Amino acid sequence: MYRTHTCGELRIDNAGQTVTLAGWVQKSRKLGGMTFVDLRDRYGITQLVVDAAALGELVEKASSLGREYVIQVTGKVVERQSKNPKMPTGDIEIALSEIKILNKAQTPPFTIEDVSDGGEELRAKYRYLDLRRNPLRKALELRHRIAHEVRNYLDSLNFLEIETPYLIKSTPEGARDFVVPSRMNPGQFYALPQSPQTFKQLLMVAGYDRYFQIVRCFRDEDLRADRQPEFTQIDCEMSFVEQEDVLNVFEGMMRTLFKNVLDVDIPNPIPRMSWYDAMDNYGSDKPDIRFGMKIHEITDFVHGHGFSVFDSVPYVGAICVEGAASYTRKQTDELTDWVKRPQVGAKGLVYIKVNEDGSIKSSVDKFYSADDLRKIADFMNAGKGDLILVLCGEKRKTQTMLGVLRIEMGNRLGLRDPFNFAPLWVVDFPLLEWDDETRRFYAMHHPFTAPKPEHLELFNSDRKEDLEKVCANAYDFVLNGTELGGGSIRIHEADVQQRMFEVLGISKEDADYKFGFIINAFKFGAPPHGGLAFGFDRVCALFGGQETIRDYIAFPKNNQGRDMMIDSPSFIDSEQMEELCLESKVGKA
Fold first, then answer.
1. Rounded to whole angstroms, how far apart are CA atoms 273 and 287?
2. pTM of the predicted model as reported, rounded to 2 decimal places
3. Residue 381: left if φ>0, alpha if ψ -120 to 50, beta else—which one?
4. d(CA 131, CA 113)
């Protein structure tokens, strides 16, 4: 055996035992006549010691060890004279009798420590070294634990884990597909699945009433901290269910994960909020409810006072930031510049301060009396020391901007503790979104989402105003301002599905070409069904208290979609191009 124990296993109870360990040299140091080596593996670190009085060959080997050398050692477990309470193995050390160098190592390009001196790009290039660091090891262990708990929970409820294909048909409706040329079918392409949506519905038609898989999905879209071109979903579907059944099952799953993985109890039941209330009060369909600072409409308070900025728009909204009246002019000017950034999109910012002495000061008090401002403050329950921030414009756009500002103020005031978990179901989404530019409706979720049964009459109307009122039988699971999962009850009736295609402007020919296989399947007895998918990478990151998902993926891509370690994507040779009937336009006029 290369080892009898791991480097995180030995304790004072093992004192006197002769053991063999194997691992990587974390660091080596000499103190007086002693050489100390920290040996690391996935399980922890154990201190090794070689006395200068030992055999000369042993001392020489110990002195030659460099960082990240792979070694095997044998020795006796002894009690440390200078104990380290910060290490699980800190009460013992191994007095060595033998050292075997299994593999020498070059000096790594950055330190393999919890806090490394390597930049993000350098660590991405040497990802296999970065993965030796404790934070990434713990992240991947957490990912494994969550996957294990998910499988156990769903298995206990008779779900079957069934794999679906990776090479499918492109149905470009939403994000861009990654496409794969087919050598055996020249000029034709597979697409990599953005989700197994149609396949899980076909499994319901096939009679597999409870399906799941922890599945890889692909989307060719711009990246950010919580996005990767390839990502993982906990994908689920159920037959003979209504919305309440789905929410109860997966609320139970999340409650189990929080308890078994983090030993955290979340609310039972988890609160629910309509999409309309979420937008009106938080300016987001994924609201962070860990803190207040709700949006208030103050249009009626500010119209008609001669301030053209407010008089010329249909909506004026505000948030009250507790304790921020101490903001200086410099700070409010900086905040005004912040909301003007393209990421927010506001044209300016108005403030109202309720000072500690009760007086009120505003950036627009030229147009509004103290009484006018007092009425706004009272309406918003603003007390002494509070700061009211005001934006205006078209209703939904302004609410969204206020929602972004609200999150920024929550960050600045330290109100978003990553380990204070506030889950929420958002329900009753609009079924359709109207786009003024293309003059057509788009599905807010996807074309297979069912309308609420009570809204079928509106759904069959030809009036745009009626269709905009139709609610989807859909739901999102939101945690701390992040959408962790979403799903819906699906359309299972052919006439309702045909109506959905009509509303979306998808012709019968296009529908048959893109979705003919599922339309035909529904003719053979499709059960009522619904489900949802959780973003597995996001679940792992939030459970770990992080916003970025990269550390929870073994080999992630950077913001340009590149794998810095293997230098991918890359060009393929002319022979492969010819086999695939492809021609590159890169570098051609």
1. 10
2. 0.92
3. left
4. 11
